[in-house]
Amino acid sequence: MSKFQNLIDAYGVSHKNKTNKLIHWVCVPAIFFSIVGLVSVIPFPWEAEIIDNISLNWSFFALGLVLLYYLSLSISISIGMTMFSLVCIYLCGRLNTFESPLLIYLSVFAISWVFQFIGHHIEGKKPSFLQDIQFLLIGPAWLMHFIFKKLNIPY
Fold first, then answer.
1. Does the residue 135 lie in any domain?
2. Which of 23, 73, 76, 139 has the fewest CB atoms nearer than 10 Å to its CB?
3. How confident is the model at residue 19, as a pLDDT?
4. How far apart are CA 13 and CA 56, in angstroms?
5. Which domain holds residue 137?
6. Domain count, the chain
7. Helix, strand, coil shares of the chain as percentages rounded to 5?
8. Per-residue model confidence (pLDDT) at position 29
9. Which residue, 18, 23, 43, 20, is CA-closest to 102?
10. Dihedrals φ, ψ of 55, to 5°?
11. Are 20 and 39 in contact (CB under 8 A)?
């Protein structure tokens, strides 16, 4: 069994309740997105437009490291997470033109974590990241692996 499958299985132990899973399907991507947004508003030393009003920012570098981690676990999952990351970057590029993107990202982050803890309360198990911090990155990959299973894509 691969290291990735071991991590997915370990993460799944505290994510069996239907309500908790549903909450995770909404809140894990929202948290990932909000973190990309929060990192994207950190002042960057120079301005370089990449594409269609999306400027280079710290989220590109942070996501590069995250995607290297996913690549070390699974090539196909890293491709899926790259696609999701590009969607997040695009949406953040649009939101960053608003008056208070920081407030939006902080609100999404806080509300999503409240629901995550509610889900784990319903489940009756502590969040996996309290056991091992890398589970913060496994959560999105865990969801991606379900999509891949549904599409019969090996992961």
1. yes
2. 76
3. 98
4. 38
5. 20-42+50-150
6. 1
7. 70, 5, 25
8. 98
9. 43
10. -100, 150
11. no
Q: Is 126 strand, coil or helix?
A: coil
Helix (H) or strand (E) holding 34: helix 18-40
Assigned domain for 2 exists? no
Taking alpha carbons only, the member of 130, 120, 118 closest to residue 14 is: 120
Q: Please tell me the predicted confidence (pLDDT) of residue 146.
A: 97
Two structure tokens written together for 136: 């913060």
Residues 145, 75: Cα–Cα separation, whole Å: 12
Query: Which of 83, 81, 77 has its CA nearest to residue 154?
Result: 77
108 lies in some domain = yes
Q: What angle do CA 129, 134, 136 make, to 5 degrees?
A: 55
Among the listed residues 52, 35, 44, 148, the one whose alpha carbon sits nearest the alpha carbon of residue 97: 52
The alpha carbon torsion through 76, 81, 82, 87 (nearest 10 deg) reads 140
pLDDT along the chain (155 residues), means of 10: 93 96 98 98 89 89 98 97 97 94 98 98 94 94 97 94
